[in-house]
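Deliverable D4.2, example record:
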Amino acid sequence: MKYVLAAIAGVWMADGLALLVAPRHVIARVRDVLALSPAMLRWEGVAACLGIILLLGTEGLRYQPLWLITGAAMIIKSLFLAAGPEGWRKWLIEWCLRREDVDYRFWGLGLCTLALLLLHALGWLGGS
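Output generated by the structure prediction step:
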């Protein structure tokens, strides 16, 4: 389970660094993917499963309330994007894709922070 959680941290770190370094490029690629294949949102089921793993796999780790909130948010977001009302999903996605670069950089910083905290909680960074 530790390796799956570390993989989640790795994805967060990669996404966060991409948003910090090149937010405009990342969002342009997301727009392109969604324009070419709107069905990509069906892959949100994978994110929901990772949220469940985060909820169940972090039992007894440091910062457990953070993992509970983050896992629940992942599940809710994923279920909404996969099966929510079409009009609301479209509005939310458009709103998210119209943000300023600085907004994406803050999200990137948050994802990097989550990644480092999860790796610390797993005992892979710093003292355990």
